[in-house]
Design brief:
single chain; alpha+beta; 2 domains; two-stranded antiparallel ribbon; 7 helices; 7 strands; 37% helix; 21% strand
């Protein structure tokens, strides 16, 4: 599943979902029909007494169970829903029909679904901080963005980027995240530029109402690329290989085996 596909998180009970299992990562999660329950909220029921009440005013909450048909993992989910009055053309009857669809939006999963897969080579502290951001992605975008921003601090720690700088009188000043990323450019400009873009999105998380889900998906795409550049073993080895060949301006240095005595 592509990161951008997480924009399409609304579903009907009859929908064929393609969310990846948090255990085996296969797109094999299915809604357990007999374990899916929805009900209308008290406030929604009260609104039915309004003179100008319309079907779109219905507000639902739901809980359900997802089960992976591949590994058997079970995932609980909760969220809210609404009712839509839809019109469509029935090609069998050759007539326009109408129907009421209950459409649901999830706000919580346990275990949480992974927006993207993180290499096992990625340091655990960084990986766990990003996984924590996945939990918040469904219901608290500003907090999610702040988690992503914190993961950058941890990532720079792992890359041995200085946290402080010397100042007059023998003291030291703590470097801001922006300054640390600029410092990291000396070592890895490409990844540093990606981290800087993520940082701007993370900063927006401090301003209420400014973030949209698509903004977080932008950050996750940039982060996924950055982590792949740093920790994907195949890409890392190829990066080392091309640098060695370019430096030697020819084939890489041959290794010789020592003869056994």
């Amino acid at each position: 599943m592509k990161i951008r596909d997480w924009n399409k998180i609304k579903f009907l009970q009859k929908s064929k979902i393609e969310w990846p299992c948090p255990n085996c990562n296969s797109s094999a999660l299915k809604i357990e029909k007999d374990k899916f329950h929805s009900t209308e909220t008290a406030n929604s029921l009260d609104n039915r007494e309004h003179e100008y009440w319309e079907i779109e005013w219905i507000h639902l909450i739901f809980s359900g169970i997802l089960k992976c048909s591949s590994c058997g993992e079970t995932v609980t989910m909760t969220g809210y829903g609404n009712v839509e009055h839809v019109h469509f053309y029935d090609h069998i009857s050759n007539e326009y029909e109408e129907a009421l669809n209950e459409e649901y939006t999830p706000t919580f999963f346990h275990p949480t679904l992974k927006i993207f897969q993180i290499s096992e080579n990625c340091p655990e502290l960084v990986r766990n901080e990003i996984y924590d951001s996945f939990k918040l992605f469904w219901f608290d975008l500003p907090s999610c963005a702040n988690k992503v921003r914190t993961s950058l601090e941890l990532l720079l720690n792992e890359q041995k980027v200085n946290k402080t700088i010397a100042i007059k009188k023998g003291g030291r000043r703590r470097l801001k995240l922006h300054e640390r990323i600029v410092e990291y450019k000396k070592k890895n400009k490409q990844v540093a530029d990606f981290l800087l873009a993520i940082k701007w999105i993370g900063n927006t998380g401090s301003h209420i109402g400014k973030l949209e889900r698509n903004d977080l998906l932008d950050a996750y795409e940039l982060l996924d690329f950055s982590l792949s550049k740093l920790y994907d073993s195949k890409e890392t080895e190829l990066e080392k290989l091309q640098k060695e060949i370019n430096k030697r301006k020819g084939v890489r240095k041959k290794t010789t085996r020592k003869k056994r005595k």
